[in-house]
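USER: Study each token:
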Amino acid sequence: MIELTHLQILSAALFSIGVYGVLARRSAVLVLISIELMLNAVNVNLIGLAAFVDRPPEARVFGQVLAVFVITISAAELGLAFAIILRLFKNRGSVNTDEIGELKW
């Protein structure tokens, strides 16, 4: 049986992998994927806490609703970030974060 600690360990592992990806990767696309992984770790934690909290069923929906809002915001963020990255690739020819650190055109 899955307990809350299992979900929190899974969430912490996913978040740690995402932090490593943000800090270690040079490609802007891989950095964005790592940020999405961190947001999904937060969603796992929110839904896990909502499922295991000792409240009436009506109050348990709050974590799931909050997770849907996080997914919506992350989808909008991902679309905008990919548009910026595609524009940078068109202008500079690279999406390496070391090369696009200065936004001088």
